[in-house]
Specification:
270 residues, mainly beta, Pnp Oxidase, Chain A, Elongation Factor Tu (Ef-tu), domain 3, 2 domains, 9-stranded mixed beta sheet, 6-stranded antiparallel β-barrel, 15 strands
């Protein structure tokens, strides 16, 4: 029997949902049922996740979804402090127990926008994936610096080609991380604006770099001395940096020759 047959059946349908949350290289998989399953090499653990019904309206900004987790859930608890550095995508798939084909269909897809803690629960507000596509307003601007996110699709740089992987020597105040093999090899500021990735694939932005020490945007609870971390360099989004540091001028998304004066305020631009 197919998914559609089970879904339309009065007696045989036993709905079950799979929840996939992806955040950079990290992934969390849950199932609404009581038993753990393995599908396509991924393990889905039982979780008492609650969700809103799927909304359908002509206003795409009213089609969001609220997901509710126990406060101590491994995935949801990370939203209790600062929001994660990377975008978290949500995919909900729907199937039925007893389906010999194990067929699941994508039921809803989007991303996490915000979180709110209420007593023993964490509520995540999510928006559907197509809202960013149909969001009103400008999505790209004419500006002096590059408009692309470093290492993202528009940028196109393969960050693995610029990775520095080595051991944490010291950790001071939870923010200043000394990494072996950095001092004397990389110029100060090389990693500023880049990313540090811990062994559990959690990450933090690097807001400063001097000698062998990088400064994180906020503490990383899982980080400890002796661990092996990955450092990825940052970019100031200038044309010269794009060319000299990444040899990526073909994908530079800025307009360095636009006039610095506004031609619409009566000032001459020449």
């Amino acid at each position: 029997m197919t998914y559609a047959t089970y879904e339309n059946s009065v007696q045989q349908g036993t709905p079950v949902e799979l929840y996939e949350f992806v955040q950079g290289l990290s992934r969390w998989n849950y199932i609404s049922g009581a038993d753990q399953i393995v599908r396509l090499g991924q393990t889905y653990k039982p979780s008492p996740i609650k969700r809103d019904r799927v909304k359908q309206s002509t206003d795409i900004f009213k089609n969001g979804m609220k997901l509710t987790f126990p406060r101590d859930d491994e995935f949801a608890s990370q939203f209790l402090g600062f929001a994660p550095e990377e975008i978290t995508t949500v995919t909900i798939m729907r199937g039925h127990w007893g389906d010999p084909d194990g067929e699941y269909v994508v039921y809803w897809k989007g991303r996490v926008l915000s979180a709110k803690a209420t007593d023993s629960q964490v509520e995540l507000e999510c928006e559907p994936v197509y809202t960013s596509i149909r969001r009103p307003g400008l999505r790209a601007k004419f500006e002096y610096g590059c408009r692309h996110v470093l290492y993202a699709r528009g940028c196109g740089v393969n960050r693995e080609l610029y990775k520095h992987e080595n051991t944490v020597l010291t950790l001071t105040g939870g923010l200043n991380v000394e990494v072996a093999g950095v001092a004397g090899i990389y110029a100060d500021g090389w990693f500023t604006g880049g990313i540090l990735v811990a062994p559990d694939n959690s990450s933090r932005f690097i807001v400063g770099h001097a000698s062998g020490v990088v400064t994180l945007s906020r503490p990383l609870a899982s980080l400890a001395t002796g661990q092996t971390v990955k450092l990825y360099p940052g970019c100031d989004h200038l044309r010269t940096t794009c060319d000299a540091k990444f040899n990526n001028l073909d994908n530079f998304g800025g307009f360095p020759w636009i006039p610095s004066r506004n031609p619409f305020d009566g000032s001459s631009i020449v």
